[in-house]
């Protein structure tokens, strides 16, 4: 620009780079003491070395990753809600909470896709306009605010689900659930607040070239990221272990196909925990090691997408298992479906109305026995208090309750 017009003004430079006038003026005054000659020398130097500079592009796998998880996640959530309606006859509260988490996960991926547009010419600052750099900061800040909120909501849904499964007699397990929620909340709130106030201005991306823009002196952002990230991994591991405790004993009595499927599920859950650790390791290499490690080549956004989406998929498996048991029981080695949709719906409605039910209405759900060939008329009616409800102290097999 200076080559074609040596008398270029600061206003024209600001317009050329798409930057606010005060930013360019502040930049010129702070770094070059108001000297146009020195500013011209710097720009000429950048122009000379530009051919030798690296020009990294946006990570190509992100867009296919977003598209794939959007399709798979949407199908799984639809199957989850269909399972609840067709088998249980209603949508439990923890499913609605998970739906909110899924919406936030989709919003995170949308923000990441929008951020990819800012890197259309390259991810290095010298390949971007001022507006591209500012938008990149905006999108990444939104991502880092939404991520802990989405993680908290997904974990809250799972913990509420576990709370419903754990009987009062297992007091320790319920205390673990409460403690896990408190730790999850404790890691979410600081992560959100720090991202909003770290630079002293919420819209700090509008002051990129302002030399007066500084971080809060007493706040160490990398340390905060590592601590909240570590707590996030800790709660991930606890949430992964809780269902193992609930179904480990009964699962040993199940058929081989079902045991293999359960092992695959918990392996996928372990991947979620590992992905959270890789997200922290990538941040560490980018901030503390100057981006020299192998993980620095993979954006944090990739680990963010994988971790959140796999968590939703793992959390939806119990509902999907119920569909398999109902329609394709032989896949899991089950001879007859132990969950019958119309039966459970009648049971749920009758329990809510306090009606008397015939004992055979519950079929195999609690007894795990084959449906009796005795005509319904010959089976005596049973009072409501004699029938084991879902909240009864004498709960059914945890594996089926898990579904």
Automatic annotation (TrEMBL):
UniProt key word Transmembrane: yes
Pfam families, per the entry: Fung_rhodopsin
Signal peptide residue numbers: none
A GO term from the CC aspect: membrane
Membrane-traversing stretches: 61-82, 94-114, 145-163, 175-199, 225-248, 260-280, 300-320
Membrane topology reported for the UniProt record: Multi-pass membrane protein
Subcellular location: Membrane
Bias-annotated ranges (Basic and acidic residues): 385-394
Residues covered by the Rhodopsin domain: 79-325
Region (Disordered) residue spans: 366-403
Principal location: membrane
Protein name in UniProt: Rhodopsin domain-containing protein
Annotated organism of origin: Orbilia javanica
Source taxonomy: Eukaryota, Fungi, Dikarya, Ascomycota, Pezizomycotina
